[in-house]
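Question thread 4412

I'm putting together a teaching handout and wanted feedback from people who do this every day. The idea is simple: show students a protein as raw sequence, then show them the structure tokens that encode its fold, then repeat with a second protein so they can compare. Below is the first pair exactly as I plan to print it.
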Amino acid sequence: MNGAPRLSKSAASGLVLVVAALGLDIPAASTHSAAPPAPGAHAARPRVDEFVFRSEVFGNTRTIRVLLPPGYDDPKSTPTRYPVMYFTDGVAVFAPPGRNLPAVAEELWEANALPRLILIGVDNGACTRESTNPLADRASEYLPYQDQSWDEPRPEARGGRFPAFLIDEVMPEVARRYRVATGAGSTGLGGSSYGAIAALHAVLQRPGVFGRVLIESPSLHIGSGAMLRDAADARAWPARIALGVGTAEGDTPDTRLNMVDDCLRLRDTIRADPRVSLQVTIEPGAEHGEPAWRGRLPGALSWLWAE
């Protein structure tokens, strides 16, 4: 590997491949959305739904996971349209070994710390039916530039297609199935590690689609810093951005320093736009993985969706 030391492949993947890499027992998705519960007490509870989605952009099939907020199934709320936030690495975001978003959101809703919105987890390339190399397949879908820290042969960088996949394929299907509100102020996007790069790339390539964005531990070293150069040329940023990183992310002191420094460079770039509200969390001792991302998730969600 040339240049400053960066995250190893194992560190860079974190725990976001909890199903594909660890073989954890997560219930398989059905091919159709589950029927809503009968009207009554259960209609006031949040509900996890899921459906299988075929992408023409990537030519594969994956699960889309959906957390519907309390009251969504109440007949009285039928006219209501809800804000929506999408997450990369959907299986890790929803699974209890990962960020366990359903539990996090329910706690926030019970505390009135989060407005009622629909939360979407989009599974990564590692979890598609067609995946043969989970680590490489995830990297390929998320990265618009190659990661030089990989040994040859490196995964093909197909992340340039990710904005079209998410915005032109997934989002219209979600809007067809669920009562989602429209407009940037009602639409969020979040990701971590390579998934944060995919989210950042979507924001940069399609300005005006997302108004609230969570960027956790972004792998900004890819493409010899190309994402930072792209960010410097941004035409517009989302109105609210939460950026998080830990001081112990990486295998060496240089790597850990680079992770933080890269995030600070991104912070400074975003701050140059006075229209953006930016929250930056640099967590002492936090490593690159699900425990840290789950720990920062409640605060980030509450801040991003504050009225």
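The second pair follows. I'd like the answer to focus on this one:
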Amino acid sequence: MKKRIICMLMTGMMILGLTSCGDNTVLPEEEMRQNRQEEAAEEEKAEGIDGGTFGDTVTAVLFQGSPRLTTADTELVRDEIIKYTDVDIQLNYVSDNVEQKYGLLVAGESIPDINVLSYDMYREYASQGAYYDITELIGNYPNLMKYVPAEYWERVKEDGRIYGIPTCNTEGKRIINYRGDWLDKAGLDLPKTREEFTEMLRLFTENDPDGNGKKDTYGYGGEGNEKFAVFYAMYATFPGFYHEKDGKVVIDAISENYKDCLMYIHDMYQAGYIDPEIFTDTSDQFTQKVNNGKIGCFSSWWSTPGTLIRDTGFHEAQPEGELVTGIPPVDVSQGQGMQANDGLAGVISFSYNSEEKIEKLLGLIDWMSTDFGYRTCKYGVEGVHWTLDEKGNLDYCATNDPNKMRLDGVKMEGNDNETYSILQRMDIYPELLTNEPYFKINFEQAANNPLYKNLFVGLTSNEYSTYNADLAKLCDEMRVKFILGDESFDNWDKYVEEYMRSGGREVAESLMKNYNDTYGTNFVLAE
């Protein structure tokens, strides 16, 4: 590291010598950048980071399933990482057969120093003793403790010990979308209750919202896994989830809430308020219907409406059209909300052979979780690839520039500089969406929506692996039959019996045992 600093100083003196013959006045922009860097250094000290220990640099092999490549710009990021953490990262990235290739490394006792893994992969190898026990060390890294929710530390424990650092994502990903111009025409606000939602669907279907004199619109449409998300939200249910009520575990796929939800969807379908092709439409067919002004409301992933507007010509096809979102029509007091994703995105673990490096490796991840460290690994070098304004907001980022131009006038190699980015800061992430307001608004709405969570999120079992695919298939088939009216709700109990007979009981009981063992509860299965 000392040799590196000497080389940097010599390079700096050479540059100074070359420029001393001309005007050496510091430009205002450069002065502002220098001031910002000094402020950042002070912030880093406050966060427990002193710009590197200036000790010996350690080399660390980083494994991750990723197709990302190195460029001249990402090498600048690598230099920054060394500067601030004394860790020189050597990449071992694979883009296919990740589990197989990683398994070979473990079998050959060549476990990389840093391992960025899925939760399931981490649990598999942590149970085999592949990783360093960091239980007694993590409390020394305040930025990590701030970054990781307490409940996630519980989920990465193996026999009560911690062998990895959870990486976090936002749990809210789904939104409800409305044709805002249709709401205005009908004199409606965003629906807040199921009754208001029903009336909106009726008006969107029956009152000619597009003004073409034809009855050719539907209140609701959709496609894919999110097609009925808002309906599930209004009934606090989701097939595949489990929830607790009065100390008992309820299987959502056979619950009364789920039955009531399907009955409501059936009623809306029979009334003609739901697009009759909702079960068969492809993504392209659904997009065409939205662009043609046939759908008044739909559930989706947060990014879908932005994609419709930016990429598929919604505004060109519907010049007066407006897509708006808002809080779904749910009763939070009844536990209702959009289905939550697992916020534990993955786990960063360290080889059991890395004892002499472990403190610096933990310091590296601690630095990466800070505002400055995250932005460096995500965007590049401050003052070269990105800057903040006086209020600390992102002012410029070369990744967002259509021409990918750096602040020094050099064109960036590649589309981004995220090769060394291994964790997310979802509180900072939206700043990248500032230039695309539809994406930013919808991301923030999804993240802040009321959520309905799976009690057994992240848990698995042998029984789950054995039976879950067949259970999901049964659930999907019966959902369609109940909604279309091909199966009477009088036969609901027969469906429940078939579900339990097909492994539903074994799966629920095995997951419940894992949950009770992990969290010290004594839940029993509801009958």
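Top answer:
Good format. For the second protein you could add a caption like this: The longest strand covers residues 58-65. The chain has 19 helices and 17 strands.
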